[in-house]
């Protein structure tokens, strides 16, 4: 909840072994709020670009990426979060044959 209290659990014993991290279930808005809070905490170090699309991604050495946006802005970063849905354009740019990663997980969500 908004106070950080756990209000339920979901056992998925093979998830962490399969994916290398535990499962976390939260509403999209909760994720956005947590990301925005951290961005504000690190003011001046994090760029958030809304209302545009990533049109090109380039690897710069081992630790950086360059992202060209549809508004002609270019951003260099340590991390790119491509939260653009199941038919992700960002994933298509970085993963060959990305369709093999799209499959029904058995979960249903509603808003």
* Overall helicity: 10-25%
Distance between the termini: 16 Å
Question: Which segments are poorly predicted (pLDDT under 50) over 5 or more consecutive residues?
Answer: none
* N-to-C order of helices and strands: HHEEEH
Strand-pairing-aware structural class: alpha+beta
Oligomeric state of the chains present here: single chain
Biggest sheet overview:
3 strands, antiparallel
Q: Count of DSSP helices?
A: 3
Task: Describe this entry's structure for a reader.
The protein has 111 residues and is α+β, with helices and mostly antiparallel strands. The protein is built from three helices and three strands. It has helices at 15-19, 28-41, 89-94, and strands spanning 54-60, 64-69, 74-77. A three-stranded antiparallel beta sheet has the order 1-2-3. The two termini are 16 Å apart. The relative contact order is 0.09. The model has no long low-confidence stretch (mean pLDDT 81).
Summarize this, please?
The chain is α+β, with helices and mostly antiparallel strands and 111 residues long. The protein contains three helices and three strands. Strands 1-2-3 form a three-stranded antiparallel beta sheet.
Name its key features:
3 helices, 23% helix
How do the strands and helices of this protein lay out in sequence?
Layout: H1 15-19, H2 28-41, E1 54-60, E2 64-69, E3 74-77, H3 89-94
Antiparallel strand pairs: 1-2, 2-3
């Amino acid at each position: 909840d908004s106070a950080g209290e756990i209000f339920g659990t979901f056992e998925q014993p093979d998830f962490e072994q399969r994916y290398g991290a535990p499962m976390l279930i939260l509403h999209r808005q909760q994720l956005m709020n947590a990301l925005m809070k951290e961005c504000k905490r690190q003011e001046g170090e994090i760029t958030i670009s809304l209302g545009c699309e990533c049109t090109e991604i380039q690897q710069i050495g081992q630790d950086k990426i360059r992202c060209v946006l549809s508004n002609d802005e270019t951003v260099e970063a340590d991390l790119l979060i491509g939260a653009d849905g199941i038919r992700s354009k960002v994933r298509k740019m970085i993963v060959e044959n990305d369709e093999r990663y799209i499959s029904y997980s058995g979960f249903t969500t509603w808003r």
